[in-house]
Design goal:
The protein is an alpha/beta fold. The chain has two domains: 155 residues, Quinone Oxidoreductase, Chain A, domain 1 (Alpha-Beta Complex); 132 residues, NAD(P)-binding Rossmann-like Domain (Rossmann fold). The chain has ten helices and 16 strands. Strands 3, 5, 6, 7, 8, 15 and 16 form a seven-stranded mixed β-sheet that branches. A six-stranded parallel β-sheet has the order 11-10-9-12-13-14. A three-stranded antiparallel β-sheet has the order 2-1-4, with no helix packed on it. Bound molecules: NADP nicotinamide-adenine-dinucleotide phosphate. NADP nicotinamide-adenine-dinucleotide phosphate binds next to helix 1, helix 4, helix 5 and strand 10.
Length: 317
Amino acid sequence: MKAAIINQYGSPEVFQYVEVEKPQFSPKQLLVKVYCSSVNPIDWKIRKGMLKILTGNKFPMILGFDVAGEVVFIGSSVTRFKVGDAIYAQLDQRAFGTYAEYAAVSENIAAHKPENMTYEQAAAVPLAAMTALQALRDKGQLKTGHSVLINGASGGVGTFAVQIAKVLGATEITGVCSGQNSELVKSLGANRVIDYTQQDFTKENIKYDIVFDVVGNRSFSDCKRVLQPNGIYITTQPFPGNFLRSFLTSLLPGQKYKVILVQSNGSDLAYLKEQIEEGKIRAFIDRVYPLSFIAAAHIYSETERATGKVVITNVVS
Ligand SMILES: NC(=O)c1ccc[n+]([C@@H]2O[C@H](COP(=O)([O-])OP(=O)(O)OC[C@H]3O[C@@H](n4cnc5c(N)ncnc54)[C@H](OP(=O)(O)O)[C@@H]3O)[C@@H](O)[C@H]2O)c1
């Protein structure tokens, strides 16, 4: 099969689009023909060697977490899927590799693809939307009537976070992005949009139940003054010091600091499928690249200015 592999950490030029063996799959896994994948910032962080401590030095390595595709073989213990099913999934942190024509996907982390989405749209969903869902529902304990601020509302995670906050019952949703993305963020359900180039949300006299710092560029101390007395700040940046801060605030009453680390989860994807089919959540795609142009897709994602998602297709041209 064709795959984009890396044989060393480094710049986007380390990608090679070559022929490799199809992946092995276990009795509990599906072999999936990958129609589309997507780029998440963790992909280029791994490529650069920033997460070497977790990813090790075993090359060649195939990057990529998101997959939307068709089941072509099933392991002997698989019960929920059959050959021919259209599925989507986010692979596990220890077994990624969707920048390829085929991927081995564990049954428990897959769900049927939303019927009203193309493969391109479905591939945009798993990692970004589950990050938003698990952050707001599990870390933020978002309840009906809550007021939520999303810093980075126009990016891959942020575009889903605005919509998911609404689905979970938030009544006031404030999105922070650059002025050019303001209309998009409003169209996704934000009641108010703050242009970070003009205004600093931490200096306002408004209090939120949840501040979801998707960009992860604001400190807890800056955000404390715009959090309710029992408000929750959530960051996407899993640095050791952030986990320590999270532990310390868990011991004390009052405002909490939490870190989201997205988990692959088939049930969450099944829940998102329902919301998508009811028209409550949609994927916003900025650019689509063929897998053979994965280096260009990474260069674009690394600008940290993508609006919504960068999707990869496997349609061989
Ligand atoms: N811990 C986890 O489980 C987890 C999971 C997913 C993602 N993450 C992390 O979360 C971060 C965001 O991921 P993503 O997929 O959403 O990235 P992304 O799609 O690359 O985010 C791009 C967006 O960030 C916005 N942005 C850039 N600078 C900003 C600023 N100063 N203030 C507000 N918005 C700003 C941009 O908005 P404008 O173009 O409007 O400026 C753009 O729309 C990454 O660091 C990623 O690694 C962590």
